[in-house]
Amino acid sequence: MKKIAFLSPFRGLLLGLGVLLSACQKDDVPEFKPTDPDTPGTGFDINSISDTYANVAPLSSASLWGPYNVHDPAIIKADDYYYCYSTDVGYGISDATLTSGLQVRRSKDLIKWDFVGWVFNGLPAMGADFIRQNGGTPNKLLWAPYVVKVGSEYRLYYSLASNVFKLSVIGLATSSSPTGPWTEKGVVVSSRNTTTPMTNAIDPTILVDPQGQHRMYYGSAFNGIYMLKLNPATGFAETTGDKGRRVAERGYTGNRINGNIEAPEIIYNAEQRKYYLFISYDWLLTKYNVRVGRADSPDGPFLDFNGQDINIAQDHGPMILAPYQFAGHSGWQGTAHCGVFQDNGQYYMAHQGRPGIDPYFMNLHVRKIFWTPSGWPVVSPERYAGEDNSQVAATDLAGDWEQITLNYRVVPGYEVEQNTPDFQTSVPLQLAANGTFNGNASNTWTYAAPYLELRWATGTSAKVFVQKGRDWENKKSTIIFSGLDNAGIAVWGKKK
Fold this sequence. Notes:
Elements: E1 2-4, H1 9-14, E2 74-78, E3 81-86, E4 103-107, E5 114-118, H2 125-133, E6 143-150, E7 153-160, E8 168-175, E9 182-191, E10 205-208, E11 214-218, E12 225-230, E13 245-248, E14 252-253, E15 256-257, E16 261-269, E17 274-281, E18 289-295, E19 319-321, E20 324-325, E21 332-333, E22 339-343, E23 346-355, E24 363-371, E25 377-379, E26 399-405, E27 424-425, E28 427-431, E29 436-437, E30 440-448, E31 451-455, E32 461-471, E33 476-485, E34 490-495
Parallel strand pairs: 20-27
Antiparallel strand pairs: 1-9, 2-3, 3-4, 4-5, 6-7, 7-8, 8-9, 10-11, 11-12, 12-13, 14-15, 16-17, 17-18, 18-19, 21-23, 22-23, 23-24, 24-25, 26-28, 26-34, 29-30, 30-31, 31-32, 32-33, 33-34
């Protein structure tokens, strides 16, 4: 086992830009001891959060990254803080320059985030050695972490890929604190470049079910999403060498797969008595979107909106988050690889968002999750801003809105083929006080808080959850809604 210190950003800067950190070399790196970012009198202006951040993008400004340079977030609550662990990437920073090892941020309110350092000060030795022993060169950077607390132990699962097609590992490190230091334990599951059907061993998420059983869901491309049973005492596979079994895959157009499938996230909602498996589709820079299936058992089958097993070769819905564009804004693309968590009964989704004006910027978005009357999760069309949770009065609904329907266009392929985000753009929606909308007497709406029901003359209907929110595009308070129509297509709204 290898002890790996938590590396503060300031220690990383002292090592110098462009220096390659040797794999798990045990330097004289102090344990991370953060200063309190919530010092009284400092204040915080939510309007200071911007879509682009070139002025603080360099590694020398890492202490100012806050919600910026975030990709593949995983969030856990520990004491008074939410901790966000994410892939080590940076706008305009080469892989050779970046620190080898998973960025960490923390927040007390899910809005103001403070960058506090890196998990490792080099590649975990056991994971890197496995790749070298199998003929590959490990990537310089780690991807897609997941952290779960078991008893008094924090277990951090990391993803390490290589220059060899499908040669990857998911490894495990543990700590008694969310800030480390971390002790590397070994490789949990691996994949190799063979003809044997197998997914890529990256993108882990962990479920501890009500019976105390542990499962890992993981995978990217190739053969879909896998589920692997773990030993609760160790965090490793229940059966040594087991890869698990597939629980989800994608559809095909002719002989071509419709796009990538990756980044599972699993939760159990006790109120709904269901297990929900969130999955990302498509290319991460452009069409990246989130789907969800649900099951009565953690072993599946996970069913889509139409009751179909998501493990059959077709695309599945509902799609609850996708690239979108409200009026007057460049839009957000690459909106997937989500982390789902709950606090005091409220569920949230964290994910990356890339602004349409320059999609190489990567911002942390956190959204509230609402639940439809039939038990499906949907997400807010706007990021969380600590908004008032009180119910919206019916008299406040009439007026001009923007509506977005998350339609979808299949573009088989990956980076080359999926070269545009396919933004779902807003259209005007006018709710009249007499219970009609868009000037058509056959379009009707009714409201029984918190649900607004829209009924179009075409036969489409949608019961959507209404709440107060923040208009991030125009920096003001507003009212929002989110739900699914009767065909399982997500419908969003924001009042002007």
